[in-house]
Automatic annotation (TrEMBL):
Residue ranges annotated for the Reductase C-terminal domain, each copy included: 322-404
GO terms assigned for molecular function: dioxygenase activity; oxidoreductase activity, acting on NAD(P)H
Record organism: Haloactinopolyspora alba
Xref: Pfam families: Pyr_redox_2, Reductase_C
Keywords of the record: Dioxygenase, FAD, Flavoprotein, Oxidoreductase
Protein name: 3-phenylpropionate/trans-cinnamate dioxygenase ferredoxin reductase subunit
GO terms under cellular component: cytoplasm
PANTHER family, A to Z: APOPTOSIS-INDUCING FACTOR 1, RIESKE DOMAIN-CONTAINING PROTEIN-RELATED
Upper taxonomic lineage: Bacteria, Bacillati, Actinomycetota, Actinomycetes, Jiangellales
Length: 407
């Protein structure tokens, strides 16, 4: 009887890296990588940055060269949505009704943009940004409109605003909270990004929501806001967050909370099914709770653990959450996770007005998270501070004459 393959569902970064890790860790059995997109696996961060700005092509975003999969004996199936997992018989079913056996299954189904739940939210000219095609369309749009409305002042919305301003487009960003990025950064540091965008000519409309997209024919021509005002725009980009693709896991009876629940080895409630990337809500040994991280580095790094677990090793994923963004001339990296109890102090080391600083979020004088803005090579020190859990002196932490501890 043929050996049952290791099957990976979701051909994004986490899926691609898992098959790479399986081969690197010595697995020489059959591997199938199944994705629903027409493209082989690619990375998404460039889609809202250099690919929109025109300084890189979409071709640069692929994880592997086209011949890598055949060369590593990976059976790559594109445009093949998986519709069902039948755990009792260890099979998946694809959209064409074909069933495939698995020995171990990796779920890396990622996440999808949350829709804008208002009238006109699906009109022509309303764009979401997740896939290569979306990036292509939004780049064309930026090249052809005078005024763009961005709904949602999160990371993707602000990156699109930055690219559009770079192309000379008038941009209005509508954000429900008092400041863009207030939810992930808090008001103290969100202000830095609001100022950045205001200085680059973006119109920020905060504390208001979009009540409906104004449509002429079936084309978006603007939006009506909750304060009764109207904004004219020739196109709309919606960036109001993403939701994990948990449908398959839920239907298969796996434990699902915010994402697919997993232990520190990324094993789900079924020991033959492992998760990685945006969809995984895994116990984090250092943070002492489950976290689901919707960021690139998590999809890049979890696969080493996921593959090892599939191969029967006893391993734990312990990397701290990490995120980066590039907007205009600002580059930022963020390590850590503030967590449900929040922070009680923010320390800024450097010049936040000049946008060259490291910020720390503290609770009980312990560092929960750190963000370096236009300051580089401090990531290891920031991570060491978080990992150590030691109490710090906020004044010394802010003092540029006092070196950051390195371990
Ligand atoms: C525009 C954009 C910019 C970003 N920028 C940054 C950034 O600057 N920094 C950062 O840290 N993070 C960034 N991210 C987040 C980062 O890209 C994600 O965290 C990462 O893509 C997650 O990888 P993944 O493999 O888990 O999921 P995904 O990349 O979502 O891949 C999952 C794949 O599985 C497929 N799939 C889902 N269901 C099925 C099914 N039933 N059958 C078959 N296939 C299925 C999906 O279509 C998709 O192709 C950005 C995301 C986007 C969209």
């Amino acid at each position: 009887m043929a050996e049952r393959p290791f099957v990976v569902v979701g051909a994004g970064l986490a899926g691609a890296k898992t098959v790479e890790e399986l081969r690197e860790q010595g697995f020489d059995g059959p591997i199938m990588l199944v994705g629903d997109e027409p493209e082989r696996p690619y990375e998404r961060p460039p889609l809202s940055k250099e690919c929109l700005a025109g300084s890189a092509t979409l071709d640069s975003a692929y994880v592997h060269a086209p011949d890598w999969y055949a060369a590593h004996d990976v059976d790559l199936r594109l445009e093949t949505p998986v519709t069902r997992i039948d755990r009792a018989v260890h099979q998946i079913e694809t959209v064409d009704g074909v069933r495939h056996d698995y020995a171990k299954l990796l779920l890396a189904t990622g996440s999808a943009p949350r829709p804008l739940p208002v009238p006109g939210g699906d009109a022509t000219g309303v764009h979401y940004l997740r896939r290569m095609d979306d990036s292509r369309r939004i780049k064309d749009t930026i090249g052809s409109v005078a005024h763009l409305l961005v709904v949602g002042g999160g990371w993707i919305g602000l990156e699109v605003a930055s690219a559009a301003r770079g192309a000379g487009v008038d941009v209005t960003v509508v954000e429900a909270l008092p400041l863009p990025l207030q939810q992930p950064l808090g008001p103290e540091l969100a202000r830095v990004f609001a100022d950045l965008h205001l200085e680059h000519g973006v119109t920020l409309r905060t504390g208001v929501t979009v009540e409906r997209v104004v449509v002429a024919g079936d084309v978006a021509v603007g939006a009506r806001l909750s304060d009764g005002s109207e904004i004219e725009a020739e196109a709309v980009v919606v960036g109001v967050g993403a939701a994990p693709n948990v449908g398959l896991a839920t239907a298969a009876g796996l434990e699902v909370a915010d994402g697919v629940v997993a232990d520190a080895g990324l094993r789900t409630s079924d020991p033959d099914i492992v998760v990685a990337g945006d969809v995984a809500e895994a116990t984090h040994p250092l943070l002492g709770r489950r976290v689901r991280v919707e960021h690139w580095a998590n999809a890049l790094n979890q696969p080493a653990t996921a593959a090892a677990t599939m191969l029967g090793a006893d391993v734990r994923y312990e990397e701290l959450p990490y995120f980066f963004t590039d907007q205009y001339d600002l580059g930022m990296e963020y390590h850590g996770d503030i967590g449900p109890d929040g922070y009680d102090d923010v320390v800024v080391r450097g010049d936040s007005d000049g946008r060259e600083f490291v910020a720390f979020w503290l609770r009980d004088r312990r560092v929960l998270a750190g963000m370096n803005v236009n300051v580089w090579d401090v990531g290891e020190a920031v991570k060491a501070l978080i990992r150590s859990g030691v109490q710090v002196d906020p004044r010394r932490l802010a003092d540029l004459d006092v070196p950051l501890p390195t371990s």
